[in-house]
Amino acid sequence: MEKPNLCIKCINWDHRPEGAPGERMGYCIARRRIVGPHMDCEYYQLKTADRVATMNNKLYGQIDEGMEDADF
Predict the structure, then answer these.
(1) pLDDT at 72 over 80
(2) Per-residue pLDDT tens digits for 22-31
(3) Which domain holds residue 50?
(4) How far apart are CA 28 and CA 9, in angstroms?
(5) Residues 41/53, Cβ–Cβ less than 8 Å
(6) Is residue 37 assigned to a domain?
(7) pTM listed for this prediction
(8) Helices in the chain by DSSP H: which ranges?
(9) In a domain? residue 1
(10) Dihedral of CA 38/28/43/46: which sign?
(11) Nearest to 24 by CA among 32, 40, 13
(12) Do residues 10 and 47 make contact, with C-beta atoms less than 8 angstroms apart?
């Protein structure tokens, strides 16, 4: 039985089709390089809505209440 590809379910996985790395290749934020599928990884964290929101807040900052309707 083949082990599952952890990368595609990981918070650190960023598939970048514009770079044409191939369907199973992508950028690993934790490793800071293009990688293929990993079946075992010390950086693996299951991607959940809460983790994605936390990561986005770290990257882009917290959106103030009432600002979501702002017209930029």
Answers:
(1) no
(2) 777 888 999 9
(3) 7-60
(4) 12
(5) no
(6) yes
(7) 0.68
(8) 49-60
(9) no
(10) negative
(11) 13
(12) yes
As given in the structure block, the two tokens for residue 66 are 């009432």
**How far apart, in Å, are the Cα atoms of 51 and each of 4, 23, 55?**
21, 24, 6
Lowest mean pLDDT among 28-32, 51-55, 61-65: 61-65
Q: Is residue 25 in some structural domain?
A: yes
Q: Any idea which residue has 């970048």 for tokens?
A: 16
Number of domains the chain is built from: 1
Encoded amino acid at 47, one letter: K
| Structure tokens that stand for 23 in this block | 């369907």
Q: Is residue 33 part of a domain?
A: yes
Contact in structure between 9 and 41 (CB atoms under 8 Å): no
| CA dist list (Å): 38 to 11, 17, 28, 57 | 13, 19, 11, 27
Hunting for tokens 């590809």 — which residue is that? 5
Closest CA to 21 of 7, 2, 4: 7
